[in-house]
Amino acid sequence: MVTRFPAPGTRVVVRYQLPDGRATDALGELISIDVDLVVVDGKRGVERIPRAAVIAAKAVPPPPEPRRRTGTA
């Protein structure tokens, strides 16, 4: 179980275990953390993750800037 999390408002990736035993990631802004729940707002929407299911969590840099198209079509 992860004991330390980045501060709310930080962009994070949170790896957690699904009920069937597989692991998945939530990538987005860390909204809140409490004793039972970690809340991440990402591209898939707001994910409410049971804290006991969290395997790892870390801050990540902002997403890259969109690439500009070059050349002619």
Explain what the structure shows.
- The chain has strands spanning 11-17, 23-33, 37-42, 45-50, 54-59.
- With 73 residues, the protein is mainly beta.
- It has a domain at 11-59: SH3 type barrels.
- A hairpin with a 5-residue loop joins strand 1 (11-17) and strand 2 (23-33).
- It is elongated and about 55 Å long.
List the helices and strands and how they pair.
Elements: E1 11-17, E2 23-33, E3 37-42, E4 45-50, E5 54-59
Antiparallel strand pairs: 1-2, 1-5, 2-3, 3-4
Question: What features would you highlight for this structure?
Answer:
mainly beta, 73 residues, elongated, single chain
What's the overall geometry? elongated
Could you give the order of strands across the largest sheet? 4-3-2-1-5
Number of strands: 5
- Helix count equals 0
Low-confidence stretches: none
Q: Could you give the distance between the termini?
A: 52 Å
Query: What number is the mean pLDDT?
Result: 92
Range of helix content: under 10%
What is the CATH class name of the domain at 11-59?
Mainly Beta
- Based on CA atoms alone, the radius of gyration comes out at 15 Å
What's this entry about, in short?
This protein is mainly β. The protein has strands spanning 11-17, 23-33, 37-42, 45-50, 54-59. It contains no helices and five strands.
